[in-house]
Fold:
Amino acid sequence: MPLRYLRELTAPERNERNNFHLGIALCFVAGATNAGGFLAVGQYTSHMTGILSGLADNWVLGNSTLIMAAMASVLMFMAGAITSTLLINWARRRGSRSLYAEPLMLEALLLLCFGLLGGQLDSHSSKLISLTMLLLCFIMGLQNAIITKISKAVIRTTHLTGLITDISIELGRLFYWNRNPDTPDHIKVLCDRKHLKVQSSLVMAFFCGAVLGAYGFSHLGFSSTIILALILALLSIGPLIDHF
Structure:
């Protein structure tokens, strides 16, 4: 993979092509991390909807242990997103060309730690809170904030509800029958095929990553995430070389 291409993927100057290609890669990583993480901790960590719903349920049921675990997970996801935002804005203020590469490299290092030390973290987890799950929530928050900042909130990679909704909307437009052929184009219901392609590709990348992540974790255990760490390191290497 040419170094010039890697520089463009995480460079400060953005275009739709770079955002799309980076989004595909990060969706793949998120899917693999989420599916593999479920096998590790029995909980999906890429989206907060289910965790907050569980928090509400356990609040009503009075299950204090699960309430604390859910609150800690949400706070760690937020901490990851806050960390990403601080790193990007700090690098932008310094005029650094590695403003997006630095949080990606941090995510790579954390995934590497997860791959090498995940078993030890799991063994040191208390009955109240899983340290492994907290690390995964932090990683997912970190990544989601990165791509949100890069794409100006157009692309999300760690949860698919919005993506699948957008796909459904475009399919609804595609199947709509404009009965009068003389209807002006600005009134016709038309499908944005480019948008449909982008959103469908992101969903497929997440799904493929999830399949491979589940397969890798079931056969290799925690060490399967080392490959994901290498992918992220490769994505961030170009601007970091320029920086140093």
The mean pLDDT is 85. The longest helix spans residues 64-93.
